[in-house]
Amino acid sequence: MSDKLNMDMTKSKVGINVRRLAVFQLREINLLVILLALIIALTIFSPYFAKWANIKVVLGSLSIDGIVVIGMTIILISGGIDLSVGSMMCLSMTIIAKLFLSGINPWVAALMAVLICAAIGAFMGFLVTYVRLSHFIVSLCFMGIARGVVHTLTTGTPISLVRVLGEAPKFRYLGQGQIGGFLPMTVVLFAVIAILAEIVVRKSLLMRLVFYTGSNEKAAAYSGINVKRVKMLTCVVCCIFAALAGVIYVNKFSGVPVTAGAGLEMTAIASAVIGGVSMNGGKGSILGAILGLSLMALVQDALTLFNVPAFWQELIRYIIVLGAVVIDALRQNAALRRTE
Question: Does domain 2-339 have CATH number 1.10.3470?
Answer without folding.
Answer: yes
